[in-house]
Design a protein that fits this description.
The chain is an alpha+beta fold. The protein has a single domain (3-109), classed as 2-Layer Sandwich (HIT family, subunit A). The chain is built from 3 helices and 5 strands, in the order H-E-E-E-H-E-E-H. A hairpin with a 3-residue loop joins strand 1 and strand 2. It binds zinc ion.
């Protein structure tokens, strides 16, 4: 059983901030900034593709409320929401990070050294694939 499933089943401790039938939210034990929470669907999957639209909407609805709560508590200048999937999903259990952001808080994107293309051909390829998937 993964650590998030253990938290959901109360077999591991966590500082829980919210829970409903679809999801649980608790403090990240390695916060980017104080108030960093995870929103974890109760279904053990490693990609959002396996979650229902209803669960995803539920997660984003809770994320919106957490963003507002963090702003009320910390007066932060902004926030970040992150989600890593597939091979890059820690613990193999999908989760969303929500944390307050400040100027010069040290958090940022890290780019590889190789330059990547941005062009209409790439956009067209994604558009065509989206149309066939919808
Ligand atoms: Zn799990």
């Amino acid at each position: 059983m993964c650590v998030f499933c253990e938290i959901i089943k109360r077999k591991s401790p966590a500082h829980i901030v919210y829970e409903n039938d679809q999801l649980i939210s608790f403090l990240d034990i390695e916060p980017i900034n104080e108030g960093h929470v995870l929103i974890v669907p109760k279904q053990h999957v490693d990609t959002i593709e396996e979650l229902s639209d209803d669960t995803l909407m539920g997660i984003m609805g809770v994320a919106k409320k957490i963003v507002a709560a963090l702003k009320d508590i910390y007066g932060n200048e902004g926030y970040s929401i992150m989600q890593n999937g597939g091979k890059f999903c820690d613990f193999g259990h999908a989760h969303f990070h929500v944390f307050p952001r400040y100027d010069n808080d040290g958090f940022g994107w890290t780019y590889g050294s190789e330059e990547k293309d941005v062009n209409e051909e790439i956009a067209k390829g994604i558009r065509i694939q989206l149309e066939s998937n919808l």
